[in-house]
Amino acid sequence: MTGEQAPGTEDPEAYVETVLRLVEQVPAGRVTTYGDLAEAVGRGGPRQVGQVLATWGGGVPWWRVVRADGSPARGHQAEALRRLAAEGTPLRGPRVVLSQARQPPAGPLPGAGPGAS
């Protein structure tokens, strides 16, 4: 090992804060995907975003982040679907109708992305 960190782990605290801020920007009745968030942050991937939400996402509208097929996070489907329906999010069965509800983040936030410190 050369002592270098893996991509996406340069500043874990900033990464977590960026993901959570982006989730907070998703309005009621709309959703974004784990992949959309990862792309907006500019590092990491959908699984890293999922890990952030699983660990620190209790204070943000985590139910507004869905998988690429429109389904809510495993293990939290019933609660997520209840909250999404209450917000008027378009649903078809156990999935969000992404063509109507998807709202990718506006773009990287200041300080996000490769080389950010």
Descriptive overview:
This protein is mostly helical and 117 residues long. The protein has a single domain, classed as Winged helix-like DNA-binding domain superfamily/Winged helix DNA-binding domain (Arc Repressor Mutant, subunit A), CATH 1.10.10.10. It contains 5 helices and 4 strands; from the N terminus they run αβααβαββα. It has a two-stranded parallel sheet. It has a two-stranded antiparallel sheet with strand order 3-4. The longest helix is centred in the first third of the chain and has 13 residues, at 12-24. It is globular and about 40 Å long. It starts with 11 loop residues before the first helix and ends in a 16-residue tail after the last helix.
**Average pLDDT rating:** 86
Total domain count: 1
Q: Segments where pLDDT lies below 50 for 5+ residues?
A: 1-8, 109-117
Strand count, sense and barrel status of the largest sheet are: 2 strands, parallel
The helix-and-strand class reads mainly alpha
DSSP, total strands = 4
Strand arrangement, major sheet: 1-2
Our measurement of the CA-to-CA distance between the termini, rounded to an integer number of angstroms, reads 22 Å
Predict the CATH topology: Arc Repressor Mutant, subunit A
Known CATH architecture: Orthogonal Bundle
| Fraction in helix | 25-40%
Radius of gyration: 14 Å
Quick rundown:
This protein is mainly alpha-helical.
Q: What would the keywords be for this entry?
A:
disordered C terminus; Arc Repressor Mutant, subunit A; 5 helices; disordered N terminus
